[in-house]
Design goal:
With 272 residues, the chain is α/β, with parallel strands linked by helices. The chain has 10 helices and 4 strands; from the N terminus they run βαββαααααβαααα. The chain has 3 domains: 121 residues, no CATH class; 64 residues, no CATH class; 59 residues, no CATH class. Strand 1, helix 1 and strand 2 form a beta-alpha-beta unit. The longest helix has 18 residues.
């Protein structure tokens, strides 16, 4: 059986289920029954799918780019291991610790406890910095590079394809053809259900991109309602635009007209 390799949060469970239903190999079923993610195993599989395989040759890998990390990181925490932490609502380290209480740190993501222990004393600005780093140094980036170096991947399925109905179905049909199946059952309703569960993070990303556009065009707009996760993404976009890292905001600007970033010191920040 051909294999789909995918990292946590990259929708491999959903893709495998769509392939089985669309090919007519299994009857339509509720992907999300008794589960936050699509982890119901009671269906006829047309592909093997997992986060890890010993085999060198892999039929398909779900690939992501840096620009995908805003949605991917959110989904990773919200659905991975059914963790259920909504980064759009976690605005303090207190929110994190309350959610993590009684859980095994190492099952959340590598280095989680160290990151929080180091940055917690910085308060909200430290949390914003942690979120900002997700766009350049999230642990899945290294894992993806390692997997791609270890395996011969025949095809890639781009993470962004999941978020456009026509593109997703077109690419799904191509995968089915390569697997020797036809697209027999329309899965448009499945895609709609999938997107419905992701709408708030999709709209959040679009909001920050709109705010960033206002910033670059000197258009004043109120940004007091941005969450810390959204503030971090805005800072990331500004740093990409300016070409250098900016100092942390202690009090976040309330309007785009007040965004006047200062270049961060190099080396030891506070060494005089």
């Amino acid at each position: 059986m051909e294999k789909i390799l995918f990292l946590e949060g990259t929708h491999g469970n959903f893709l495998a289920r769509c392939l089985s239903v669309a090919s007519g190999s299994t009857e339509d079923f509720n992907f999300y029954k008794d589960s936050i993610g699509a982890h119901n195993e009671d269906f006829t599989k047309v592909v093997d799918y997992n986060h890890y395989f010993n085999e060198y040759d892999i039929f398909c890998y779900i690939n992501f780019n840096l620009d995908d990390l805003y949605i991917l990181c959110w989904h990773n925490y919200f659905a991975n291991w059914e963790f259920g932490l909504d980064l759009l609502k976690a605005n303090t380290f207190k929110d994190w610790k309350k959610h993590l209480k009684g859980r095994e740190w190492h099952t959340i993501y590598p280095g989680a406890k160290n990151h929080i222990d180091i940055l917690e004393s910085s308060g909200v600005s430290g949390l914003r910095e942690m979120y900002k780093k997700y766009h350049t140094s999230f642990y899945l980036i290294d894992k993806q590079n390692d997997l791609l170096n270890k395996h011969n991947v025949k095809k890639t399925f781009q993470f962004k394809w999941f978020y456009n109905k026509d593109t997703f179905i077109t690419q799904l049909k191509l995968l089915l053809a390569d697997l020797g199946y036809e697209y027999r059952v329309d899965i448009s309703d499945k895609w709609i259900d999938f997107i419905r569960n992701k709408n708030k993070i999709i709209q959040s990303k679009e909001l920050v991109q709109y705010v960033f556009s206002c910033y670059t065009k000197n258009i004043p707009i109120n940004i007091t309602n941005l969450t810390v996760y959204e503030q971090a993404y805005l800072d990331h976009l500004i740093e990409q635009y300016l070409g250098y890292e900016i100092e942390l905001w202690q009090d976040y600007p309330t309007n785009t007209r007040d965004i006047k970033p200062v270049k961060a010191w190099e080396g030891e920040r506070y060494a005089l």
